[in-house]
What does this fold into?
Amino acid sequence: MNTFTEQAVVLGRHKSLVGIVTEPASPPGLKPPTVVILNTGIIHRVGHHRMYVTLSRTLATAGHTVLRFDFSGLGDSARSAEGLPLLKSCLAEISEALDWLETARESCRVILVGLCSGADHALLYGHTDPRIIGLILMDPSIPPTPRYLMHYIRPRLIHMSSWLSVVRGRSRLFQMLVESIAYAVRLKWEPQYVSLESSNGRAHLEWVYQRSVDRGIKFLIIFAGQSSFRQTYREQLLDAFPDVAFAKHLRLEFFEDCDHTFTLESDRRKLIRVILEWMVSTGFAGVAKKTTRLSFAKSAQSDEITW
Amino acid sequence: MTPFYFGSGERRLFGIYEPALSGNESARAAVLCHPWGSEYLHAHRAMRQLATKLTRAGFHTLRFDYFGTGDSAGEMTEATLATWESDIESAIDELKNMTRATRVALVGLRLGATLAATVGAKRASDVHGLVLWDPVVSGTEYLTELASQSNPTRQTPAEPSDVTCYEIRGFPLTPNMAREFRTVDLLQLLPALSTPVLIMTTVSLPSHRALYSIPAGRGNESLAIEHMPDISAWIENTTTVGALPVSAMQRIVQWLERCHEYIH
It folds into this structure.
């Protein structure tokens, strides 16, 4: 017998956002927080390697109602006719999804989940809505730190192509340095693109993290060690934002051998285990039962996860 | 656009139904058949856009996820090619029930095309046209491609093995499914097809040589084989991310319109 049910829904102000609600087959006595999973880049709501389907079903088995939906113009959702800038549109649609959950499922405590751009959207939205009580961020934008730059530069020094990129002005590092210097001396500088990893972005992220902590939002932040374009070591977040008082609001994980999209099944299994553990440690867990069956392929490994 | 689940309780399939936007006297309908694995993920956007173009051309469309894929029930490890073929048959029945269409067109991409061809041969009375978009012509060639995408530290499905499961760019592939893939041979299927067929390729693969050398009048006079270089919708490519194979999609819509007019 299935431990969860799934329903296709259309939601949002214009009834144009397509999503799937996964719910426990037997609702738990005490309703745990609802989980909302956001798109990663332009990949539709099932996520890379179908990871969000597995995550939704596992969390529903553990008692949570889970919604995964597509932002307008992504996946199956219609393109928005409002012409809002992309970021504003995404944040507005998270709000619409939460409104729908509040009305249709009486959910007023929500945890947002996102990877990469999804993590950035979750972070930027979280502090603006009192319904958000937790954020699960996988590879969110993170500014470079001196230690990161050393890790990043060292292997590139011996490659001619790296030096050619610097000469041609295409080096990512070179662009970051120019932006940092310009920001430091307060030059009127228009970056080539707006990035949360830039100097301006760093100040805003710091403010957002602190504001979220002040509002009591709990964080589970997971960095993939093989995303070297973004981070290279576990404490980079803390070094990047030394003034943010995360204290007990943060559980920080660094999956050293994991790539940006959790391609290996073993990494996705570990990810889900960490999420379930965090749910328990934060008091967000839905059921007293501490074992959930994971629908992964490898029967050679344990099919059940205990947290 | 209506997202919904259909099929039996244990095999609930996720589908998206889009009604035709322009009215026509004879109902036109098309079932779209996705590729598999990471190809499904990257082609989703193109398949959705193709469905939209078809609805503008007057076709009711149904896109759906096979059992164990996308938003449908089950796990990939529980699936077989035969069950995916029966999923396509369920989708045909569902679309016929939802519309006034008595027959539907099948449009498949990559492995979805090859599955559509098999179903097209089996359900000839229900299928009035087949579009095989960059179909998997040779299962062996397909497995070799998959092997090149599998984790190098793991065993690959190119050769028989006793591993529990392969991982192909994050998607599980059972040895049983790999064995089934190996038996795929589109060239053997073609003579069994009595409906009009468009085979369209956008990239050149070694197996296509045999495809292009098929003599005219091989039993199906309505077989068109065309090569139209375009973006490979199913491949993740940082230089073309978000771009769509517009020419290929336009040609598919145009061919299906003519195919439908010819039949009616």
Remarks:
- The longest strand of chain B covers residues 127-133.
- Helices of chain B lie at 38-56, 81-98, 111-122, 139-149, 175-182, 186-189, 208-212, 246-263.
- Chain B has a mean pLDDT of 89.
- The beta strands of chain B are 2-6, 13-18, 28-33, 59-64, 104-109, 127-133, 166-168, 171-173, 197-201, 223-227.
